[in-house]
User: Fold this.
Amino acid sequence: MDRKEISRILNEIGVMLELIGESPFKSRAYYNGARTVELLKEDIGDLVAGDRLKDIKGIGKALDEKISELVKTGRLRYYDNLKNQIPEGLFEILKVPGLGPKKVRTLYEKLSITTLGELEYSCIENRLVDLPGFGEKTQQKVLEGIQYLKKNRGRYLYPEAWSRAEELIGAMEKEEEVKHISAAGSLRRKSETVKDIDILAAGYDAEAIMDKFEALPGIEKTVERGSSKLGVLLENGIRVDLRVVSPEQYPFALHHFTGSKEHNTAMRHRSKGMGYKINEYGIFREDGDEGVSCASEEEFFKTLGLSFIPPEIRENTGEIEAAEEGNLPSLVEAADIKGLFHVHTVYSDGSASIEDMAEMARSLGAEYIGISDHSRSAYYAGGLKEDQIKRQREEIDRLNGKLRDFRIFAGIESDILPDGSLDYPDSILEKFDFVIASVHSNFTMDRDSMTKRLVRALENPFVTMLGHPTGRLLLAREGYPVDLESVIEAAAEKGKIIELNANPYRLDLEWHWCRRAKERGVKISINPDAHNLEGLKDIIYGVNAARKGWLSKQDVFNTYPLDVMVDVLSRGRGGE
DNA sequence: GCCGTTTTCGGCCCGACTGTTTTCAGTCG
Assistant:
């Protein structure tokens, strides 16, 4: 059993403990354990075998025994017992906004409600109003929450949320009451998907600011409103939370509302050890109410003895320790990207010509572009036959002849067949400037076979990089099961690049693993996988993800300037 | 259930908002 599965089970135990009314601290211990296991670097089997699990912070005797049982037997009696006590449907009911474990438990115990459907029916039958802690309004809210859940699964891709947030912030910036305004929360941390939009504003007249916000176009209704907090729904269903603080409180509040929750918890804990209390309003000495003023987030961190931690990496995965030691990486920026690989054209399933794609890339500041249409086994995408490859090459050579200070590299996105071989012979592969190897079919292999398939592809001397390593589609499809640790290892050994596909639906290699690749010395290429002109701009989402993965300029392949890239690609071709 | 340059017991991060309550529990972030 892998650590992802173990982490899931520990999390579920945490939820179940809340549902049966156990101590909240006990559930938290399981949540912490789940996170700890998820982020483990070392193989969990080895840790269990070496009896070293309980040396890890957050894992004590009880969790050690339970994790060991899972690893050794693949089962956990404690979990099974809990699971038998708790109807499956309660987990779905927990997702209804406004319902937490306590209320769900009441619904179950008093009304025997175990499914979302039963809950909806009970609301319509007016049966919630008499329950302790419930009332008319709660019942109405629950009913609306069920509709909301049915309408959408409650998460949005980053670009959709970001563009709406930019519009709202842009409109509010013009208001004179607004002294500062910024996105906060998971949006500011550049998460791949977000549940809602958090916006923080600073000003002295919160009521006026909230009034103006409520009146912005696209806002459908107000869900909650207090003296400093406003919650609204947009017409597309996204929830927006606006918080208003004073300009003096802004730096503290910006940090607080940017999160993550785990980062904040760790920061508060650390501050406490220094004799400070921190919250969204300031930094206070524990022995008095006196606050420490800070003009910016930079000063906030400085006061606490830390260098500035970029929002993207505030996940409590070592950033605080690194900031303390002055070891934070200098994160890659969009301007560092010097060229764009993985670009499709009209030769396969793209909609633009090679020349137009090149011009667009150039206008975006690139020095080179790497054309890689689909290969012959991708029938559905118009994969290239041998004669088309030849024609495309001729066109690229012709264009390169007339372009100055810009270069088009001729490549291919070659399918990795089930056995790990590519779908062209070496005699064809060797003619390309670069080769991206990707899986586009036979997703349903077991983990071992898929891992072998990818590793074998990486062993091919003509392969430059591995494309979208897990095949996941955010909010739509899980990636195929694969042991990425071994894949990264193989890439490290063979000196291969791994793609971070910048398409906002993919962002594959996922950022956790980017960090792992960096540790192993594997370079990441941030590729747009563009099928039209606009698609080239998706590169920014890849840069966001790379930043979350702690990548610096030197960790990213396509930050090489043109002359270096020409050199690297000519040397790397099968000559190892 | 975890943890300890105060501790092996008694803590465990903090605050806004809502709705149900007559002073607070539950939820959320």
